[in-house]
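cron nightly-structures :: item 1 of 1
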Amino acid sequence: MTHSYAVAKAEIKKEVQSYWNGRPCGAKFAEDEPGTREFFRAVEEHRYRLEPHIREMAAFGETKGKSVLEIGCGMGTDGAQFAQAGAHYVGIDLSTASVSLAKQNLEQRGLPANCFVSDAESLPFADGSFDMVYSHGVLHHTPNLPGAVAEVHRVLRPGGRAVVMMYHRASLNYYGGILFLRRLGALLLSTDFGVRLGHRLSSDSVEHLREHAERFREQRWSYLRGQNWLNNNTDGVGNPLSRVLTRREIAELFGRFSRVRTSVRFLHMEWVPVLGKLLGGSTGEMLGRRWGWHLYVVADK
């Protein structure tokens, strides 16, 4: 790795940390004062109502007595489920704001608040420290993704398991949503009337659409291209880095593991006008298992 390349990755990582410090994952879905019991309950209720498959994939109830590391603990929403199930839970996150909230969340529930700031690409644990490493929607935001996956393998015990979710390239959300409908909708954002119309047609807030509109006015057509467009249309406007991956790329990344399985969940299309609201229930679940946004890898060491 050249010096300039390493510096560039370090700068991106600082941007990633800053971004998530200002937007702890899930905080926007709660109207209560951050850090209160009501706030954490609202975040948890929204998470598992919108994404019930998380409980299935994480298998919280099967972790009693196991040592579990969560990479990207956020505000401790999933971490609380592991700890309540009897796991020996440790959570790390690059965001200082998220770790502070995670500790409050766990402490309020009377659970050990084993959360601290750390980097997924350089984990401060000895080889073979954990029975399970769990990471949900996090590793696709780190600059050195192969390095982070290598760290997951290193800290797992022989026989241990990694459960990781990353965004799925071959999904309706990516091809139909991000690359087509959202780009088409961006053309509405040149006027305030268009912003309001976009709000009426989708579930996007006026504030969020206005953030897109401002960037579009500043950057014009370059805003709609390549990595820039992807970054700004996964986890919010201003997000410094996101990736979408294929099953083949996952297989290569996790090639050092002895057994690797992938599965897909979550048809994240509720913001699509009319159609998105109709694709619920069993139909949405069925389509989500083929063209969903969440690509899970379960890898055994």
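cron nightly-structures :: done
The chain has a mean pLDDT of 90.
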